[in-house]
Amino acid sequence: MRFVIVTGMSGAGKSSVLKMLEDLGYFCVDNLPVHFIPKMTKLMVDEQETVDKMGLGIDVRNLQGLSDLDNILDKMKQEGYPYEVLFLEADDSVLVKRYKETRRNHPLALQGRVDKAIAAERVELAHIKKRADYILDTSHMLVRELKHEVDRIFLGEEEYENFFVTLLSFGFKYGIPEDSDLVFDVRFLPNPYYIPTLKPLTGNDPAVYDYVMAAPQAKEFQRQLFEMVKFLIPNYIAEGKNQIVISIGCTGGKHRSVSMVRALESQMKSLPYTVKMEHRDIERDAK
Q: To the nearest 5 percent, what fractions of the chain are helix, strand and coil?
């Protein structure tokens, strides 16, 4: 039997993931009291002929039982009941925004501030996160992207790599993305903006991409940036990070930065990480 525990920050997508697991044939239970987990697991093992995949949602609403979860999971493993832990993460600012948009109350907020409740929740769930087999940061994920990752983990046959890289193009005149881990400036490259036939196009158009990447300095920058990223990511992983945002900017975020992000994304397909590409400002000033 495959037994998956889905947990993480409130508002990070636990309910959505449980529904996705149900679509994959999992029998799912949400917010089962922690002390019932061993009994439920034994029951499901005895019923493997009818239930061979189970998903269990646990969150901070189970507050009184969370302190005992480590001991319960250790005992389950000793008794031969294997399990996997999927932890859902998201930035504080994203979680606050989601709660404001849905007008739901955070389980720990009561009548207090959501940001303080999120901080308290991180403390309560820290020990569970350390046990996680998979960590998904849903801060910038669309529902279809989240489903893709869930399918990769629980449906795909390939080995799952638990590190996410977002390659983000942007325009400096609109500000540096706040969630950037690494920021690079490609305003030194030849600018298609000053060529009338290329100005209305973007780095997604072959003519612009070819113009930018034909420059010797663009090729050398791409080479050195790729080598730097290959060096940095294993060191980030060693420090406990599970995702980074690499932002590449030009003046307006339409030509040079888009082209360089595309070039780097193509190279990074050879690395064993999940890579996502975004162009923040590509539609700005569109005519």
A: 45, 20, 35
d(CA 120, CA 123): 5
Q: What is the mean pLDDT of residues 279-286?
A: 85
Stretch 118-128: mean pLDDT, rounded? 86
Residue 34 and residue 69: Cα distance in Å, rounded? 7
Amino acid at 36: F
The single residue listed with the structure tokens 């162009």 is: 279
For 75-117, write each residue's pLDDT tens digit.
888 888 888 999 999 888 888 888 877 667 777 666 567 788 8
Domain 2-154: assigned CATH number: 3.40.50.300
Question: Mean pLDDT throughout 28-38?
Answer: 85
The 10 Å CB-count burial string (b at 16+, else e) for 198-212 is beebbbebeebbebb
CA atoms of 264 and 260, how far apart (whole Å)? 6
Give dist(CA 262, CA 77) in Å, integer: 44
Angle at alpha carbon of residue 88, lines to 86 and 92, rounded to 5°: 160
Residue 33 has pLDDT above 80, yes or no: yes
DSSP bridge partners of 4: 55, 84
In this structure, are residues 60 and 118 in contact, taking their beta carbons and an 8 Å threshold? no
Q: Is 14 helix (H, G, I), strand (E, B) or coil?
A: helix
Portions of the chain given CATH number 3.40.50.300? 2-154
The dihedral built from the CA positions of residue 253, 258, 261 and 265, taken in this order, carries a sign that is positive
Contact 159, 271 (CB under 8 A): no
Query: pTM of this prediction?
Result: 0.60
